[in-house]
Amino acid sequence: MSAWEESSTARVVPPARPRKLAKVPFVELADGRLQGVVSSGSDIERVYVSSVAAGDFAFACSTNNNRPCGGARGSFCNHIGALVTEAVLQYGAERVARYLRVETADDAAAIAGAMRATRPPAADRAAAAQVFSRFLRHLAYLELAPTTAPLPEMQWFPPTRAAVA
Amino acid sequence: MVPADPGGGGLMRADLLTDPVDGLDEALAAVDAFDRVLAAGVLRPQPAQAAGLLALAGAVAGSPLAARAAEAAEKTAAGVGDEDHLTALAAARCALLGSVHDALTARIDEATGRGRAAAPPTGPGTPQAANLLAAARAWLTDLARAGWQGIDHELVAGAAPVVTAMLPDPALRRLATLLDGFAAELAASCPGATLERVPLRRWADLWSRALVLTVPGAAAVPPATGVTGRLLPLGIDLQEHATAVQAQVHAVLEPAGGGTPRLVRASVSVPKPDTVVGAGVWQLLRPHSALLAAVGEGRSMELADMPATAAGDLLWNDGHARPGEPADAFATARVVLATAEAAATAPLDRHPAGIAVPVLLEGYTVRQDEDGTVFDLAGQPLAVDTDRIPAAGPLTPEAVATSGACIGLLRWDAGRYLLQPLAVETTVRKKAVALHAGAWAGGTTDKLGVKAEKAATDAVAVLRERAGRLLRK
């Protein structure tokens, strides 16, 4: 076995890179999609739930009250564009491109452009509720109490400077 | 035989760290054999996998686990292993690595000349929520059946409801935090069929530790007794995955009224959203332990009846501590570290990945080789894990490379001892300075630090605002 295979603390997932959260408070690569939540520019109570599927790039965008996004008829809306941009900031272009199975990995514009060029289909909005509930679960992490009892299992999760480079 | 540090507290015989340890290769070969079994899964075991299972059982044949492990290996090899069989195999793997831990730790004690307290007798802990533990065990069993090459999003997503239900209960935090970090890695690696390489040792470690923690009572906090005295911090070890962070302060406790100083740790941890990173993690931890600010300011703390376990863990409570006199970590390391006694590791926590022994090194030379930074201690090489230095702090790999003295944690991974730097003494613009990995724990006036803190404050503020509007509807 290689040293990496024999390492208890092998780094598998690079840490998220810091980014400003005001416009896109939540983005993730999960459930076979790039998905997340984009704050509305006009209404502070409203957010858009947007997603793009890996492989066929089927896209969806709707509000948290399940109203369809006016901009997402026929092609990607600005919310989906913002989602791609922020995902690239958080995870790096290469990881986003690999997850979505896009050949170009230069930058966010190239990734979004490559997906648009395939004239992707609209997805049904069934995923929106699931994405929104994952966002709420994500926010709930801020509400959890700290503990001063040791967590010995965290020894398997050292920090890494990989994201700095 | 030449001490690496002729003048101070860190006399270390680095030559002992490169000498072979008897039986180590044999024990790890059995671990590796089992770890390969988990790559393909145990749903339909092939002959090579049957051999791997029997190798693990054979390695514990002289232990009290012998009969259970042999039966478990046989049934699992025949494709009829159940949850209990897999739990027995996980326990056998943990026991085997426990013996590796003990041999490696004994070698460190020999090299540092440090005494270690005898382990107290232990009994079963208080059982916790049985239904959640059973749900976790069912998921881990599914995982072992599929194997790392068989994981997909649906299987991995099965951990989420278990983790969500466990996280609010501090008594289940150990298992919840482990499963959360493990599942996130697996999710990022789906589908397993296309994985180019698999972190075999790591995932088998996480799987087996998690499975053993599902045994009711296994993760109970051990009994604590009150300790009183002066706490002299050495440095902070930070650990984090996407959705959790823990800071552990390593320190020497000088008991009030005299007696042997003790090596202790004080931990504080909290779950976090994955977008809170860098300096932001200190902001989440800071309000819950005054010790972080004390370490940042280079102060000691006076403890009065602070709960402490036999494993050397202080169960920190600000009500039992008050700020003390200034205390320089390097002075502590030079004067009292060598006299301090280490605690016995808790039985379940005996694993090489948990080894973290504070040491002071001086009089070394630094060189770079293809694997990174290496300290030469009187001709003996010691690899330095500079990747472990948290980004949100003034300590950098460059500072380590120009350092003349280093406080670090002696660790072991992938077949060799490593040094994790916690602090160094070096020269910046012709001035001698000490740089600490955890210097920003209590806050900072450093220009880069202030910028990182501001960005982190904004990130948390946005999330709290969004949570306030959306979460309670």
Question: Can you give a write-up of this model?
Answer:
The complex is a heterodimer of chains A (165) and B (473). Chain A has 165 residues and is of the alpha+beta class. Chain A has a domain at 26-127. Chain A is built from four helices and four strands, in the order ββββαααα. Chain A has helices at 78-91, 93-100, 108-116, 126-140; strands at 26-30, 33-39, 47-53, 59-63. Chain A has a four-stranded antiparallel β-sheet, sandwiched between helices. In chain A, helix 1 (78-91) packs across helix 2. Chain A is globular, with a radius of gyration of 18 Å. The model of chain A has no long low-confidence stretch (mean pLDDT 91). By secondary structure, chain B is of the alpha+beta class. Chain B has three domains: 27-113 and 122-213, no CATH class; 224-339, OB fold (Dihydrolipoamide Acetyltransferase, E2P); 347-436, no CATH class. Chain B is 40% helix and 23% strand. Chain B contains 15 helices and 13 strands. Chain B has helices at residues 15-18, 24-40, 47-59, 66-77, 83-112, 130-146, 153-157, 159-166, 173-188, 200-213, 279-285, 290-297, 329-335, 397-401, 447-470, and strands at 224-241, 244-255, 262-271, 299-309, 313-314, 321-326, 357-362, 365-369, 372-377, 380-384, 405-413, 416-428, 431-436. In chain B, strands 7, 8, 9, 10, 11, 12 and 13 form a seven-stranded mixed β-sheet that branches. A six-stranded mixed β-sheet of chain B has the order 5-3-2-1-4-6, with helices on both faces. In chain B, helix 3 runs antiparallel to helix 4 (66-77). At the A-B interface, strand 1 and helix 4 of A face helix 9, helix 10, strand 1, strand 2 and strand 3 of B.
